[in-house]
Batch of 4 targets.
Target 1
Amino acid sequence: MAKLYFFYGAMNSGKTTRILQCQFNYEESGMRAVIMKPSTDTKGNDKIVSRIGATKKVDYLIKKTDNVFDLIVEEYGHVDLILVDEAQFLTTRQVNQLMDIVVDLDIPVMCYGLRTDFKGNSFPGARRLLDIAHELTEIKTICSCGKKAMFNVRLINGKVQTEGESVAIDGEGEVSYTVACAKCFKMKTQKKFDHPEITYE
Ligand SMILES: [Zn+2]
């Protein structure tokens, strides 16, 4: 029986490198693994870009209005595995559609993404995956203090940001990110976790 998997971690935890390795392994065994990416992630346009420099053109660049079940049904019988990069940017409905692919078409789906944005709030796609995925796996990465990094800190021109839109793509404009454990996140953002700006839509 196929399953829906969610591999989540902070930024720079090597998620894209794992996707490329996984696709390589499948194709070496004569099977077809397709890669999807929400178009919200404009980094690399229609390619996924790993930190170690490897890139690959995606098979499907997913718009917010796309029905991913319909896309895959057309190719039914020719897909053995679906890999999704930046899965936090999927809509709630698209995650539900991935679950329909798993259950109705018996194709495993492996989603990779961030759990939370730079304010520590969950992304809709990640939240739905945490709700319904068969298997959840945390990909660990390390804070500069040596503890496990759980949070993403947004920097503009190197300055820590605590305000702004949920999505700002790494490397665009002067935006960059660093990762932090809970204690360092609090220190860098100088905010309590319980503050009134935290909203859950
Ligand atoms: Zn730390």
Note: The radius of gyration is 17 Å.
Target 2
Amino acid sequence: MKKIIIIDGGPRKNFNTSALLQKVAEGAGTVEGVEVETHRLYELDYKGCMSCMACKVKGRASQVCKFKDALTPVLESIAEADSLVLGSPIYFGEVTAQMRAFLERLAFPWLSYNDYSLLAPKRMPVLLVETMNGLPERNNSQGYGAMEHCIAQALGAPERLTAYNTYQVKDYSRYELAGFSEEAKRRYRDTHWEADLQAAYDAGLRMAREINNSH
Ligand SMILES: Cc1cc2nc3c(=O)[nH]c(=O)nc-3n(C[C@H](O)[C@H](O)[C@H](O)COP(=O)(O)O)c2cc1C
């Protein structure tokens, strides 16, 4: 059985980010021999890198974080997985704090301070999902930022899936959100959201087929 791990770095269940990730899982789940495991970071009690340096101890260096908390089984699972999907809303131009903290724990053990190489236990296909208020032609997103370089080096060049101009609340009339035109949001959603969901489904399907065909 091949395994795809999905990491949901958004706080809201059943909103934009998690809806896209669920579609990725749905697409991947149609391929026989592939299982999907989803972890919601906001449901786990963990910290970012503690700088304990346990992953760099001579003779016992590890490419998987040695600090023990609720993230430990997730990181161990990723080390043995066949592909990885990360999803996050964009907060103040970057991924969420939970996603960032997760990425510190994932990537610091990959980094060698001997030669500055970035080596994961296993290379694998990666999909980076982001959702935001911004538009394709005007947004402030730096996406996964510096962490994307680490991911590309250690796991392989990631595929990217972005949903723009998302609905932030179900009913704009109930909130102080006058800077947004619900009418314009609705028009954008009506013409893009189904395609975003389809692209997520297709990406999951493609990823599952790819890992199923590799040895
Ligand atoms: C704290 C916070 C900060 C945000 N910052 C940005 C931002 O800098 N740029 C942007 O385009 N959208 C920003 N947004 C909007 C979210 O990225 C967008 O609504 C996203 O699709 C929410 O994902 P969700 O529906 O899965 O929660 C922000 C939302 C919140 C709550």
Note: Residues 10, 12, 15-18, 89-93, 131-134, 139-140, 166, 168 surround flavin mononucleotide (CB under 6 Å).
Target 3
Amino acid sequence: MLHRTRAEQVLEIYEDFVERFPDFKSVCEAEPEAIENELSSLGLRWRARNLHKLSCEIERRYGGVVPRNKGELLELPGVGNYISSAFLCFSENIPEPLLDTNTVRIIGRLFNLKINDSSRRKKDFETLMRRLLEFGDCRHFSFSMIDLAEAVCRPSSPLCHECPLKLSCSFYRRSHDETDND
Ligand code: SF4
């Protein structure tokens, strides 16, 4: 639901949705059009179809309980690497790296790695995220990364002086040195 819309706007739609469809069974038993209508204001018609298919598969294969295994998750319709990792991390607190535009931006700046569109699929980013996850719990770590990316390590004009990571950050050190040398 957060694909294209800000959290504050999604909240009410999400709450209505889970009240009307509290589990996978209720989503599966509904007409696909009913799910589409619920999500239409978010511009997610295609995702509504996937959600219906996904709910029916979870009901059919796993009796309505989402599997905790990455391989099984990836076999479900509409579930790719990011969604399966997000489920394992946020719901189960299993250490799975979440690589998206935001986390890749932070990691790239911290460790001076080149960032481009394919960075989130690169092994070195994944390896670094896995190493970092060894130092804390996955759920809190990933929420912190999301908050940091939104509030401080923004795509342009990052607020480095306010950043708790600045003393370990290559980007900060480089820009600091350049300012000192001016
Ligand atoms: S110091 Fe700046 S570039 Fe480095 S992580 Fe913090 S906000 Fe991002």
Note: The mean pLDDT is 92.
Target 4
Amino acid sequence: MILEVRDLVTAYGLGAVINGISFDVEAGEVVCLLGRNGAGKTTTLRSVMGLTSPRSGRIEFKGEDITGRQPFEAARLGIGYVPDDRRIFPDLTVEENLEIVRRVIRRDGQWTLERVYRLFPVLTDLRANHGSGLSGGEQKMLAIGRALMGNPTLLILDEPSEGLSPLMVKTLIEAIRQIQREGVTLLIADQNVKFARRVASRGYIMEEGNICHSGQLEELWANEQILRRYLAV
Ligand SMILES: Nc1ncnc2c1ncn2[C@@H]1O[C@H](COP(=O)(O)OP(=O)(O)OP(=O)(O)O)[C@@H](O)[C@H]1O
Ligand SMILES: [Mg+2]
């Protein structure tokens, strides 16, 4: 098991937003957290990354207890994180955005500028452009490429398909498959189950800070009631 989350409770202020969820991700898998607006997907991912401290529960990464660790520690251990708002550096060029992560995280591995450019050829022509000049889709590719420069073994993507054109979604799906083939495990939060079933094998459906269903994506997809009740199609 690469990631094991047990009885996770996370709160903002007084009210618990995550009510004691448990889930696993196995090495090599692509797993999706699904659920409507406000279900608790982002908070769950932030808890794993150490951006929001859990109130209780336990998070293990490769058998090591990382509950409550700082985000940079999670990154150094091999967790990459792409937030839903991307957070690329607008005043740095594409290439500088990529380089900076390698320098800060300093994890050796297979991901280099060349590999990232091969994964996202569109970034090659933009390498000298400032982050601020990129389209939303290009920023997303850059944010994923940047996270890969830290050579993560687990890559966390929050709402990767949100706001992308159909063509960009296709590029993204191909890229995620390629990343998985390179041996990276992925945990993805997305509202779009159509997208999720193209990339993930298993899914957990969240509602109001709980996991209400889990299973193979194809099973969830085939269940009309679940689709209608919990998911956006
Ligand atoms: N910084 C915050 N302070 C207080 N409450 C928050 C904060 N961030 C999120 N919440 C609340 O926590 C709950 C879960 O939000 P979260 O962002 O984790 O859901 P989500 O599933 O990622 O939703 P979305 O699909 O909109 O991204 C929501 O009720 C939200 O209003
Ligand atoms: Mg979210």
Note: The domain at 3-230 is CATH 3.40.50.300 (Rossmann fold).
